[in-house]
Amino acid sequence: MPSIVPLFSALVVAIALTGCASAPRVAYPGLPSATYLKAHEGSRGDRRPYAYQSDVRWSDYQRFVLEPVEIYPQPEAQFEKLSDADTRVISDHMFRAFGEALATRFEPTQQPGPRTLRVQLVLTGAKPTTRFLSTAMKFDLAGAPYNAVQSARGRPGALSGWLAYAVEIYDAQTNQLLAAYVETQYPNAMNIKASSGRLSAALTGADKGAEALMASLR
């Protein structure tokens, strides 16, 4: 009698192909920066669909104020099967990850002033990982090839979670918007560790998002 495991895995892959493994490309009209954001077709266009960049020299800034992470309250928010406690865990991790990354280049401060950036993070959505199944799909005969292709394309793995958020960067003294973007982050499709916990992919997404921010500030 043939095993049902390959059939089940093939079904999961089929479901993933219909959209369960895709990450959102959503404009958030409730963001303060919404009127500035435009479709972004650069090298990060898949993960960063909307962005704004003023004519700013980041080398002119020495310090940063990191505001508490806001939770996007509008209907466009995409929190899939997450409790308020889950959302707090993710937002707290975002604050730490981005704060630590910014501190590698700028001096943290709580006082707006000259040559100071004010950074606002807005958590707009997150999806938990389907535990056990997500990990198993990285080894299964049906799931492994799918995840390998997703990894090569830089896309989410089958049944993997993701993190969606916005970053708004202001001049702390003048409150001028310097840059903003909407971004989705997720672990590599073959990252086994990031599939081990329900929130692991979203938390890994925050870490990757912090790295992406610093790359943007070069």
From TrEMBL:
Where does the signal sequence lie?
A: 1-23
> What's in the keyword line of the UniProt record?
Signal
Q: Which domain of life is it from?
A: Bacteria
Cross-referenced Pfam families: DUF3313
Q: What is this protein called?
A: DUF3313 domain-containing protein
Organism from which the protein derives = Stenotrophomonas rhizophila
